[in-house]
């Protein structure tokens, strides 16, 4: 028996067929793009199974994941998930087709409350346009219960088991991923035309980024210790350098000094000037950990908006650095529970906040 979506598909195809036979040419489909848009619109309808109500846990944009096909290239598309709730939301993005078309799916992570989160979805390299150019993608999301260690640990160590045990409290969004021909643009691609298309290959994962409003640059760090500069109006890569053999875990522009600061997984900060050309200023050791393979610690940074201060996080320590006195560490703070700190942020009123692995904010 046909379901509602299949009946809608038949209805749209019949309508297109009738338009094609119109005697008046003005009433016929204006272009191939018009036909593709009509078919894609019905194919890419989103179905939501609400969890305990009608409010969506994660809002998804764009409604269709479009990949302009190019032979033998990994193709990327940003997918933005927005959490408009006051709770942490865990998600799992899966490829529902028989033969996987994507790199590194399924993907798992947590979106903090009232926060947008951007995924970069990447296709496998294919020599020819797949015969099945529309692919089923499923996004599952569920509220993460803070304070319930078993609940949190299950998601971290066994995310598939977490979603299985959550059962009816999981919200499901069924989407379509669509291969398009580069010379036939669809209306769904319009909201993301301004994005920089960074092709991600298997051996290189992008790990962090920052933006420079004055120069209109995006800076991107990867797991191999490389940093790339992109001009987003021209969508061209303008420079690149290797700062470390370790993964770049956080990168920041200091626009008023025309510097960048890169934090790496081995516990170092690397400072470079880009005023006239890329030139190294200094490297600082911010922390050390015996077992880096566990990735139990990584460097995160925050820049004070007006003072010459930088906060660094590594392990359970926060250090305050003053670059006006030769990058001296002027104060060190420790998490009382010796819990790994994941993020740090300045308040302009000379305070700061940290977020730790045990889901506490101080």
Structure description:
Residues 57-180 form the MSP domain. Pfam families: Motile_Sperm, WD40. Keywords: Repeat, WD repeat. It comes from Triticum aestivum. This is MSP domain-containing protein. Helix 1 runs antiparallel to helix 2 and helix 3 packs across helix 4 (159-166). The protein folds into 2 domains: 45-192, Immunoglobulins (Immunoglobulin-like, Sandwich), CATH 2.60.40.10; 206-356, YVTN repeat-like/Quinoprotein amine dehydrogenase (Methylamine Dehydrogenase, Chain H, 7 Propeller), CATH 2.130.10. Strand 11 (217-222) and strand 12 form a beta hairpin. It has 362 residues and is mainly beta. It is globular and about 80 Å long. Strands 1, 3, 5, 6, 8 and 9 form a 6-stranded mixed sheet that branches. A 4-stranded antiparallel sheet has the order 10-11-12-13, with no helix packed on it. The termini are far apart. The chain is built from 4 helices and 23 strands. The protein has helices at residues 4-20, 32-43, 149-157, 159-166; strands spanning 47-49, 58-61, 64-69, 76-83, 89-95, 107-111, 115-122, 134-143, 171-181, 206-212, 217-222, 226-231, 236-242, 248-254, 259-264, 268-273, 279-285, 300-303, 309-314, 317-322, 328-334, 341-347, 351-356.
């Amino acid at each position: 028996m046909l379901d509602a979506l299949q009946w809608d598909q038949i209805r749209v195809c019949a309508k297109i067929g009738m338009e094609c036979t119109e005697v008046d040419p003005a009433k016929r489909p204006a272009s191939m793009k018009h036909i593709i848009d009509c078919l894609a619109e019905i194919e890419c309808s989103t179905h939501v199974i609400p969890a305990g109500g009608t409010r969506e846990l994660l809002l998804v944009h764009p409604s269709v994941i479009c990949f302009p096909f190019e032979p033998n290239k990994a193709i990327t598309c940003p997918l933005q998930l927005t959490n408009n709730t006051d709770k942490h939301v865990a998600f799992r993005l899966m490829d529902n087709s028989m033969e996987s078309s994507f790199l590194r799916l399924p993907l798992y992570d947590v979106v903090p409350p009232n926060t947008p989160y951007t995924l970069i979805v990447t296709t496998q390299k294919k020599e020819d346009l797949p015969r099945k150019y529309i692919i089923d993608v499923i996004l599952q999301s569920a509220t993460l219960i803070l304070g319930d260690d078993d609940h949190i640990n299950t998601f971290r160590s066994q995310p598939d088991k977490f979603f299985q045990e959550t059962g009816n409290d999981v919200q499901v969004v069924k989407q379509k991923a669509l291969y398009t021909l580069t010379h036939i643009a669809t209306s769904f691609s319009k909201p993301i035309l301004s994005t920089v298309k960074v092709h991600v290959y298997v051996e290189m994962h992008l790990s962090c980024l920052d933006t420079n409003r004055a120069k209109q640059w995006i800076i991107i760090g990867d797991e191999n210790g490389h940093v790339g500069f992109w001009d987003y109006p021209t969508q061209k890569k303008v420079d690149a350098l290797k700062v470390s053999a370790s993964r770049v875990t956080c990168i920041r522009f200091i626009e008023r000094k025309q510097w960048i600061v890169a934090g790496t997984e081995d516990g170092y900060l690397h400072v470079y000037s880009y005023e006239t050309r890329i030139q190294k200023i200094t490297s600082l050791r911010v922390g050390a950990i015996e077992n880096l393979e566990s990735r139990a610690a990584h460097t995160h940074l925050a820049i004070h908006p007006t003072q010459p201060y930088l906060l660094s996080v590594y392990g359970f320590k926060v250090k305050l650095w003053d670059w006006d006195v030769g990058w001296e560490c002027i104060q060190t703070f420790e998490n009382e529970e010796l819990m790994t700190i994941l993020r740090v942020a300045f308040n302009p009123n000379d305070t700061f906040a940290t977020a730790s692995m045990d889901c506490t904010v101080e």
